[in-house]
Amino acid sequence: MTRYCVKCGILETEETPLINGYCPKCYLEYKGVFKKTPLLEVILCSKCGSLRFKGKWVYTRSLEDALVRILEADYKRFVNDEVDNLIVDNITNIHRINKNYYEAYAEVNASLQSKTYVKGKYAVRFRVVKTVCPNCLKKTGKSFNAIVQVRSERGYLTEDEINHVYNILMEPGISEDIVEISENKNGIDVKTMSPVIAKRIASIITRDKGAKIIESFKLRKYDPSTGRRLGIITISVRLPAINIGDVLLYKGVPGVVREYSGSRIILEKFDGEIIRVKMDEYWSGALVRPHVVLEKEYVVLGYDNTTIYLLDEATGEIKEYPRQINLYSLREGDRVRSYRIGDKMYIVRIEGGD
Ligand SMILES: [Zn+2]
Ligand SMILES: [Zn+2]
To answer: Residue 6: which of 22, 18, 24 has the closest Cα?
Structure first.
């Protein structure tokens, strides 16, 4: 089949394959490798210069070298769909653009649908977070009096959650007090000299992420002359495992999580009503995760006054569903998801991108 570039009209050949209708030259000109400017976070040890990379602390020659590794590991979030591999040849011209962010140029080689490579030079932005790596902390030999254990209901922390914790640990007033940071498969343990700092770390995480805190105290020494109890305070900080799009029951009524922050969860009930639930209520059990038996996606084929017709694209099956008030806004082509909770079936529109 003979095909031509939609922009310049050049004939497709083996040397000039078309990528979604574009020749490589026009692809670069009209679409480009990146769909948005890469925004990276570089976590460095302020003492030895090592880089936190994929959960480990590794030696790195320079900031340029660190950026190459981070961009190559994390490019997928920033590139157009056709890019299936990215090699960074060079990082140049690092300069500060504001208080927190730097910019540099990345010379990249991108593979497009495994058919061809294109080269380009693009701006990337990044932030540098300075902290102290576990090795360097050990050398300081300070003794600790408190431990903050950051965990999640998931059983592990996401990369975003880990970065968030490191951001807090490097804050002035906190970083100087830290004796040791260690990561394990369940989360992060932070040892501090002062229990007050440990409590501050825990409360910042709670404010931002809606965590639940449990404190315990282990006595090491009791001084009868002063009546002082010396020991180690352990603060367990448990992050909620809430995702946008989760179905939760609030006081027995199901809804979809549309947004959440450290203080509240925004739930869209299946009848379309939006409710705000305090994070405390999540932890007190007012929100529960129902057993969702069935979860299927349909496309709206059409509707009349009483019925909505849904198409299961995978099987071709057509399903009829009562057209309740909350479904009046559904139009042909909209996508919905069905849930079965207990003996009831619910239809919910899917928001773009979730
Ligand atoms: Zn072209
Ligand atoms: Zn270090």
So the answer is: 22
